[in-house]
Amino acid sequence: MSTARLGFGRHFTEHMAVARWIHGAGWSGVELTEHGPLALSPAAMALHYGQAIFEGLKAYPQPDGSLALFRPGVNAERFNSSAARLAMPELPEELFVEACETVVRADADQVPRGPGQSLYLRPFMIAVEPSLGVRPALEYLFAVIASPVDHFFADGYQAIEVWCASDQIRAARGGTGAAKCAGNYAGSLAAKAEAVAQGCHEVLWLDAEERRWVEELGAMNFFCVTRDEDGAPLLVTPELSGTILAGNTRDSLLRIAPDLGVRVVERPVALDELTAGDGKVTEAFACGTAASVVPIGGVTTAEGRVRIGDGRPGKITTMLRDELAAIQYGVQQDPRGWMRPVPVHAAAGAAPAG
Ligand code: PLP
Ligand code: COI
């Protein structure tokens, strides 16, 4: 694999894993095929009523040349809760992980091994039954495709700017905000365009009812750092209220931080706290599989921009980012058993890490 800029999700490996579900018969086995176009009826129900869910996880190159998935069981579990919300069939966790491993093994020689690079896996499920009836489909396709990706910060570790959408919402109680379904992302794109027009990189979503509480970003969870009563740093993130996606990275950071001496609290975070400009919020960042940990340098609302901290990546943010990366790339102990090695046959071409 050349070391030219890979970006995110622009290149794909040669293979994909596919399984099918038919009402009454259940799941087929996992089949490895070439990555290529799917034959789909124009009446496939996913195209009309949006029964489409997905996941995102990565295989990380390890110092000994092997590859390892980061907490794939968490993604498998979340996939099933997304499936349940969209009235789609659940997938046995072993089948989800087997499909991911099958692609990683087949395309191990296409995993980029430069600093911060990895193989991004995109498991997804769509309703393929040809029907225009508004009801759960009776046939589904599950597949895993893979994309060799750069580190999000291949051009340098910098803080991003976020735009607080005032007239649109991402999720409401009882809706699909906690599911990783395609429609959530379609619904976020107009606000994202608005964010870009405002000179920002991402949308910071507020709650639907009061438009007062910070929820998350378009594809990342939100954290900030304040001080506790003794002046020690306190890592704060909105609790999972049913409208926020339960991020794997979010959960991992909540577990890592206390081991690094940083207390954590899950509680509502008011937008006012961020925009008060009183220096109480010293750092903010977003996190997710694709981008890892991304510092937030400023928040822009209709009233103008407020800088967070000194506008640059904060100390705690950077410490958490480094610790997570050290575990994922196998240069640090993995006391929680998060990394799942993918046995790769020598013939598959796993090269030693360079
Ligand atoms: N929130 C949303 C809406 C997302 O799409 C993602 C990305 O998957 C996340 C949060 C972060 O989740 P994770 O850390 O599991 O990638
Ligand atoms: C991820 O972080 O894995 C995501 O799925 C984000 C994606 C929507 C680009």
Features:
D-amino Acid Aminotransferase, Chain A, domain 2; 354 residues; binds 2-OXO-4-methylpentanoic acid; nine-stranded antiparallel sheet; binds pyridoxal-5'-phosphate; 2 domains; alpha+beta; D-amino Acid Aminotransferase, Chain A, domain 1
Topology:
Layout: E1 15-22, E2 26-27, E3 31-34, H1 45-49, E4 52-54, E5 57-61, E6 67-70, H2 72-85, H3 93-106, E7 118-127, E8 139-149, E9 160-164, H4 182-186, H5 189-197, E10 202-206, E11 214-217, E12 221-227, E13 233-237, H6 248-259, E14 263-266, H7 271-275, E15 283-288, E16 292-301, E17 304-307, H8 315-328, E18 339-342
Parallel strand pairs: 9-10, 9-16, 13-14
Antiparallel strand pairs: 1-2, 1-3, 1-8, 4-7, 5-6, 5-7, 6-18, 7-8, 10-11, 12-13, 12-15, 15-16, 16-17
Bound molecules: pyridoxal-5'-phosphate and 2-OXO-4-methylpentanoic acid (COI).
Pyridoxal-5'-phosphate binds next to helix 6.
